[in-house]
Amino acid sequence: MNTRWVCLFFLCVVNLTFSQAKKQYQITRQDKAPVIDGNLSDEVWQSIKIASDFVQFTPNISLPATPDRRTEVKLFYNDQAIFISAKLYDDPRKIMSQNTIRDEFGQTDYFTLVLNPNNDAQNDTQFIVFSSGTQADALSSPSIGQDFGWNAVWESAVKLTDFGWQLEMEIPYRTLRFPKTDVQSWGVQFRRYFRRERAEYAWNPIDRTIGYEGLYHGILFGIKNLQPPLRLNLYPFTTGIINTVGDQTSTDFKLGLDLKYGITDNLTLDATLIPDFSQARFDDVVLNIGPFEQTFAEQRQFFTEGIDLFTKGDLFFSRRVGNEPTGTLNLGRNEVAENEPNNIDLLNAIKMSGRLKNGLGIGVFNAITESTKAIASDTLQNQTREQVIEPLTNYSILVVDQQFNRNSSVSLINTNVTRSGDFRNANVTGALFDLINNKNTYKVAGEFKMSHLNLQTDDKTGFSSALEIAKISDQYQLSLRYDYADKKYDINDLGLLLRNNFNNITAEASYRIFEPTSNFQTYRLTFASLYKQLASPNTYTGLELSTSFFATSPKLDTYGFNIGMEPGRQFDYFEPRVDNRFFIYENFTNFGGFLSTNYNRTFAIDIRANTNTFFEEGRDSYAYKLNLEPRVRFNDYFFMVYNFTFDKQINDRGFANFLNQEPIFGERDRTILINSISANYNFNPFHGFNLQLRHYWDMVKYDEFMYGLNPNGRLSENKNLPKTSLDSNPDINFSTWNLDLNYSWQFAPGSFLTALYRNQLFSTTSEAEDNFETTFTNLFQQDIQHIFSIRLQYFLDVNTLKSFFASK
Predict the structure, then answer these.
(1) What percentage of the chain exceeds 70 in pLDDT?
(2) Which of 375, 306, 292, 282 is nearest to 336 (CA)?
(3) Which of 55, 330, 365, 658 has its CA 20 to 30 A from that of 617?
């Protein structure tokens, strides 16, 4: 009996010790709200408890803040919002305060408020205020990191003082998801970043060597009788567009509405009822001569905001929605294509997501695209006809994700694409798990996915799986991963899979330091290997070995190198573009390095260089690439980056064309030259200009005689097959130009006026003899497409409207 009481006492002491390890802040309710102006002179702040004693967690761990850089935070709440004030002590002459646009981190000090209403250590909402007054916000979790695509409407103000700087924040409850309970305890963290030395401090100490940072939140208690508000926000907008190509001008005027609605305390519906993505910036197009499709990052805000649940399992690639039609125009004799659209209009889209108090996350996505027709013209009969190349299509996703143990989760996701009529349909289901032990030192993760295609002629079902075991803590980290996908696995109706039919094993080992030394602020050394096989047949295809080094010096200059090799014979089953054919290359070796000087300086530069070659008998092929990116911060308002890339490939070998259904290869030289400029002038946190300018030139020139691909995977030069005998000249001279000039003004919280001018040019010829100057001149002899648009978006909170009309 005495032993049992001793054990019980010991457990209580241990639990009490761990519970006291986390700081706690008792928040109080106040009736009056301060004016958010950064002055901190309102009476309500004078009697509020202070949270202080911040501790550094990067680059040093557990280093207390000195009195001259202390931070003092106060919080209170009322029925509408949580209010925060902070005094941030520092030498005013050393505070960095570059003006940037929202969510963009420049050379600026900042303060971060982290709230986790469910206190589950995995689903944080971050609100960031820069010393310049700019805002940033993000959703954060171990699976996605920080998602700055999420944007909320909240208020903040900053004032520079003789002791440093200070701020005020108002976080309305509409920006948070929390349960309706009488008494609540939230996870909370305050962080402060000194840009000049890249040092960050936290109120509740963080140990970067173990676990996700959410595990180190303090406790915010004292929240009582809080009623979740009606979360209904409307974003009406209007857009005017003028589009000119040559002497042809068209105009368009659009009215639309986006909305956010809190279905329950924890679930939110986002909808774009009348979509308008006319101001999404141009893609950085490149010449693609490889076997896999060219892809681009998402530019449409609806598809970048709050999509963390839908990214589970990598089954959702949002550019599929409204992408190219799946069908093609079938031309008869004497017919030509008069109009064949290369994209599809989105009719509407909704997404519903959230996470319940028990850790269950639910996500539902649905989008509908309209039927798209192409027009064929009969040149003899002088008649036209229409053909549907993409029918009315519905895209949907369902996700359930159960989190537990403050660091682990299991998930189930289903994606579905249903097309009307006689077109392909697709369905993909995935089951995932991510398990981390209680000490946050080891992880086991796995995926099991199945795809099913309903095709015009038959059905096709494919399978994919993955398993990873990893040590994820301390200086030495290890991982071992197995990936498998059969030949029928296909998720590309709503996902992105560049290739299937693989059976690979990846191993990685790394060493890093967590605290500075005399020579390094930080560094990481990594070794990796990838053993590659086909799934069917189970055939060896290659081995990749690599090592990389990444370091930051005490002066905050970053540099590193990477070395890679594919030893022995490598069997490429994709370059021939024919099933069961392969192309052999040997001993591919590459080496590269980079230097990135400290961005805190007025002038900084990034330099990247790499070279590669093949140690293979009878082959003299090599390449080198240089990238220079100087950047100048003229002052805290004006910032410019110039990017120059030169990429040269000599005697490269690859697929050129088909002849009598046989793949034809060639030896080629390739020259890529890219020049781009990015410039920002921000008058203040609320309005400014942005310029993006890019010219891309790519020239591919094949040798005179082509190569045949032998059954053994080797190439044989065919002196009887000059490139002029092919159906089309494989030489390519590709050039593109695009310019985006944007002015944005946030005239009220969540409300924007945006003016955008864009132009673009494309040119593709087989004149590989033309030099850069000639190509550039010829490019601008074409008709330029000019697009000018103005968009006005206004934010309406229904609660504010109700209060306004109630006061009348």
Answers:
(1) 97
(2) 375
(3) 658
